[in-house]
Amino acid sequence: MGDSNTWDLVGEQQQRKKSRSPSRASRVDSELLVGVENVAELEALGLGKEQLEEEARRHKKQRSKSPALENIRKTSIHILQKFGAIPKKRDDSVLLFRNIDIPDIPLDAICIRPKEFFEEPKVFSFRDMGREQQKAEVNEKCSYLFRGTSFEQDDHFELPTETGRVPEYDHFCPIHGSRRRLPRNKLVTMQTLMHSVDGDDNEDLSYIYGHDFLAKLVRKKKREMLSGAEKERANKIKRKIMSNLWILSVAFLFLFTAFNGLQNLQTSVNGDLGSDSLVALYLSLAISSLFVPSFMINRLGCKLTFLVAIFVYFLYIIINLRPTYSSMIPASIFCGIAASCIWGAKCTYITEMGIRYASLNFESQTTVIVRFFGYFFMIVHCGQVVGNVVSSYIFTLSYSGTLRGPEDSIYDSCGYQFPKNLSLLSELAESNLARPPQKVYVAVCLAYLACVIISGMIMSMFLNALAKDTRNRKSAQRFNSEIIKLMLKHLINIKFMLLVPLTIFNGLEQAFLVGVYTKAFVGCGLGIWQIGFVMACFGISDAICSLVFGPLIKLFGRMPLFVFGAVVNLLMIVTLMVWPLNAADTQIFYVVAAMWGMADGVWNTQINGFWVALVGRQSLQFAFTKYRFWESLGIAIGFALIRHVTVEVYLLITFFVLLIGMCGFVAIENFDHIVAYWKSLKQHECSEKNLHEDRRSNT
């Protein structure tokens, strides 16, 4: 049936009627299940159409039980739609009523039709004969609309059953004129009304054929089908896996409470020795991450690798009690190797637990692994907060009798004007950066040493070893050079190399915060005892944003988050380059640290995930290795720059590396378009060249 006149659908009733065109999502049809992966499983588990509808209704009721949660959900969706994060839902309904803007006044009562038409004579042509006939047909078809009584009821007048489209725009025709401005699917016809299935039940069940919902039903049905003994065994193993995850997270919390707190004090307390030791640490971490972790994990297993690495951290903190070049540089090298092993073992351990848990709970392996990593980093990021608070608290207690408030004056030798030669510091800045008494520093190191001991005890007494560790120890292990070969192979991959500058910037910005901001800004302006409190603010912001920005990629996509992190970092860099440091502006120190943590949360979550997306989920170990290598290399370069450039030059280098990295990221996102554009240019050049050669040959 063709598109009839819209006015025929309106009766004498002035009440508005509303109809919605049927969508595929709102139809309860078994044909929609074609192509869904879970159909065979649903049939095998005995889930028919009635069971699906019942589960959908139950799911709908559970979602709408709490009015507060429903209001929060609606408000958040409305806000996201306002900002354009979520596209607004298209309302494909059409209101059916007589337009009050068109009065029922006969046109002949107002308008007088012209009886004569004056046209210039036109040269006769056989081509115009068909056009004139077509125009005549158009006028004849719409002639009933030009009568003054076209909107009045006429029993002897019948509208044409089918109305075709005309190529010309007619202002007087409601079908061929103003109605043409609406999209095709907006026109309401009798056919759409007859097949409309809009109802409350179908609208509530419009999502039952989604893959996620079907997979959830399959998992639920499989869990219900487990017998008593088998179910108890599966629940026991799942509880054991979750307890091991929390044990590992708490052990890492104590370990990195000590390491992060001590690392933030290196450049302020130990000066050039601290920066040189950190260069050695992260350079060894970058190089050893290519081949050492796989050998150690296969040779010792994850649990023994954890314990050996914790022992190396223990020795590193002991050597920090009396730091010298002859002891700190070798200790830092071994600590970097231990760091690469402990991070590699952590990835292996959590991945194996996630795979095992997913098989027991009938879930996707990727979903469970990502969830476990989220739980882990939620706990570990708190170590940045606890370690810094411990150091500042001990320093504050030792300086309690001599502490004084910040002076309301501009420090000419602090901030971006911090000199390379410390003899040029002002007297107040020099007193703020004075090394704390040895007893106080030893007390801080002993507190961190206790945290490392607690971490080792938790690992050794409560953490279970993986089952495959015992199998791997029986076979002879050798160094695996596969990752090194892959690294060399992918050096010619354009996409990977475009992401390298942004990953190096991730290391540079971490090195700046740990090595430059703590010394040239916080330590110089407020004092060494305030470094921990300011860095604790950074840790809180980093932990919260790392958790929040991970799921936000599903709403906003990767590009907005990267742009947000880049804008925040650029603003903070410019702020630090123009800010005349005044110790009385205490809030600015904390705001800069919090904003820097917000941007760092973007880089920590998104760059790592971007490497996984480029390399592929089939090689997670290689993706983590590449990310850890380039990030550690960037941190090592950052600490090396501290010795050779000023703070202002360091900020400029960081600024331009970030711009280059963002250009590389944009190039990766539009890589296919760029390649297609260059190919078209080459083809155009080749065609012009061939055309030019043909012309020359013809002449």
From TrEMBL:
GO terms for molecular function: potassium channel regulator activity. InterPro entries: Ion_channel_UNC-93, MFS_trans_sf, UNC-93_regulatory. Keywords: Glycoprotein, Membrane, Transmembrane, Transmembrane helix. Residues 1-28 are annotated as: Disordered. Its main location: membrane. It is a multi-pass membrane protein. GO terms for cellular component: plasma membrane; striated muscle dense body. Gene3D superfamilies: MFS general substrate transporter like domains. This is Uncharacterized protein. Belongs to the unc-93 family. The chain crosses the membrane at residues 241-259, 279-297, 304-322, 328-351, 372-395, 440-467, 488-508, 528-549, 561-582, 588-615, 649-668. One of its GO terms (biological process) is regulation of muscle contraction. Pfam families: UNC-93. It comes from the Eukaryota. It is found in: Membrane. PANTHER family: PROTEIN UNC-93 HOMOLOG A, UNC-93 RELATED.
